[in-house]
Amino acid sequence: AKSTTAWEVPFPDIVFNPSPDDIKAILDRLKSTSEFTLKREPYRHLRGIYDLGDGRIVKTNRVSEAEARAMYSVATTTHVPVPRVHMAFSFNTCRYIVMEKIDGVTLDYALRSQCLSMVDLMSIARQLKDIVTQLRTLGTASGHRKCGSWPSGTYKHHFFQGLCPRAPDEMATVSEFLGYWVSVFQHDPWIRDPTSIHGPSDL
Fold first, then answer.
1. How far is Cα 58 from Cα 49, in angstroms, rounded to an integer?
2. Torsion from C-alpha of 7, 11, 16, 20, nearest 10 degrees
3. Are 188 and 176 in contact (CB under 8 A)?
4. SS3 string of 134-171?
5. Assign residue 103 a region: left if phi > 0, alpha if psi is -120 to 50, beta otherwise?
6. How far apart, in Å, are the Cα atoms of 120 and each of 109, 117, 147?
7. Fewer CB within 10 A of the terminal residue: the chain, N end or C end?
């Protein structure tokens, strides 16, 4: 059986409604598994993420079902490289996402280690631009163009709580969305020239 969203993305029960035996197998594995530390990044100890040792990891910290469904949707409707979601479930009020483990280092680490050439950086920038372009097309067939949490509703991340005078999903354009946050944080030192927020135009 499969469930769908307003965007008609099928979500198989084997992933989003796993059997009690499948859930127990994951929980039993977690009892003997340590939290994951990124290789070559000794300062990055990832709380609530566990390596099962079979090509899968389990995320338990700040997890929502919407996150798992968004990852699954992006993987099945775009070419954006996201980890495969093997299973998503709740147990004793705690949520879990079992997903594919991706080898490599984070972009943050690569930038800190200064191992990227300008050619590398431009290539990464082009890839990011392509990813953003693909993500912006999600929901266009159904007319879901407003800014907000996937697949609908206001932003649920704690960063947005108490900051918005009106529901962010009422913002129909990216420019309106960016303009709102520039106005909220215009006196903060990390806000730069809003005209440059889209980056170089020649990427």
1. 6
2. 150
3. no
4. HHHCCCHHHCCCCCCCCCCCCCCCHHHCCCCCCCHHHC
5. beta
6. 14, 5, 31
7. N
* Confidence (pTM): 0.69
Residue 183's DSSP bridge partners are none
45: tokens are 């100890």
For 163-180, letters b (16+ CB in 10 Å) and e give ebeeebbebeeeeebeeb
Q: What is the pLDDT of residue 144?
A: 53
pLDDT along the chain (203 residues), means of 10: 56 92 93 68 65 91 84 90 94 93 83 88 94 79 58 60 54 74 66 45 40
Query: Which residues lie across from 91 on neighbouring strands?
Result: 94
Q: Residue with structure tokens 């700040």?
A: 62
- The structure tokens listed for 1 are 């059986």
Contacts of 11 (CB under 8 A, 6+ apart): 2, 3, 4, 5, 69, 72
Q: Is-cis flag, bond preceding 12, omega within 30?
A: no
For the beta carbon of residue 99, count every other beta carbon within 10 angstroms.
Answer: 21
Give the per-residue pLDDT at 130.
94
Residue 33: how many CA atoms within 13 Å on its side-chain side? Answer: 22
